[in-house]
Design brief:
The chain is an all-alpha fold and about 250 residues long. About 55% of the residues lie in helices and about 0% in strands.
């Protein structure tokens, strides 16, 4: 997700641990990201999780970047996004909850973007290659789970976090596919809410296309309901927004 420019943008992006393609002078590393945000580093593998606890605040303060192109300057943070995702997983319809481990999905929703505590919310507008984005995220998760948590209670919790993150990345299990769908559903909910806040002056329809990539029928039903709600809202406004035909593409 990309910002709209302005004098404070580079400083803010540096705080998120992100460098634009033109600013990268050397390969990104955990150490360079920590140096840029001024986060103290433990000299050795700590036995206390406090360093990890402090790092988590980055998820509370780092914004989701895509909304800023639409002048939504005080939008949701990464942790805002993950929190609602985690609650959505708990509402899995019975047709799905009977086949999945719902508490595991809730954990996955809370872990899946944890690497963004140092990497930031990289979007296609940042022009960072997919492989490079993946490298940064994996390196960060290895730092968190092996360096910060490797000596905490024998590394059990760190290993568990890494396993959950890798499961989400591989997207092979039904639980992982569900959480990927929930990731998209949460984005669509936030889109609709920002459109309402814009009182009919903010068309965020370019995000509607993510609904096409929702796989599971239960979440597709939620998407259809939401897009119907959006259609009715814009009818009241008296405007035809972009992406209005997407509900039909999801089927009945």
């Amino acid at each position: 997700m990309s910002d709209g420019g302005g004098p404070g943008v580079n400083a803010e992006k540096a705080q998120a641990g992100i460098l634009s393609a033109s600013e990268i002078k050397e390969p990104w590393s955990v150490q360079s990201a920590l140096a840029r945000i001024g986060t103290p580093q433990p000299s050795s593998h700590p036995t206390s999780p406090l360093h990890f606890f402090h790092l988590l605040t980055r998820l509370k303060t780092t914004p989701r970047e895509g909304w800023r192109r639409f002048n939504i300057e005080h939008g949701e943070s990464i942790s805002d996004h993950m929190y609602r995702m985690s609650v959505l997983t708990m509402l899995a319809p019975s047709s799905l909850s009977s086949s999945i481990n719902v508490p595991h999905c809730t954990k996955m929703a809370l872990v899946h973007d944890m690497a963004e505590s140092l990497v930031g919310d990289i979007t296609p507008m940042d022009k960072v290659a997919k492989d490079e984005k993946s490298r940064r995220e994996r390196t960060t998760m290895e730092y968190i789970t092996s360096h910060l948590l490797g000596n905490v209670d024998g590394g059990t919790a760190g290993n568990g976090l890494m396993e959950i993150w890798e499961e989400y990345e591989e997207s092979k299990t039904l639980e992982a596919r569900f959480v990927h769908d929930i990731d998209k559903m949460e984005l669509l909910l936030q889109m609709m809410e920002y459109e309402r806040m814009g009182e009919g002056k903010k068309d965020l329809g370019e995000f509607v296309r993510v609904s096409e990539r929702v796989v599971l029928p239960e979440v597709r039903d939620w998407c259809r309901d939401l897009l119907k709600e959006r259609e009715e809202y814009w009818k009241e406004v008296g405007t035809v927004p972009s992406g209005i035909d997407m509900r039909n593409k999801l089927g009945d």
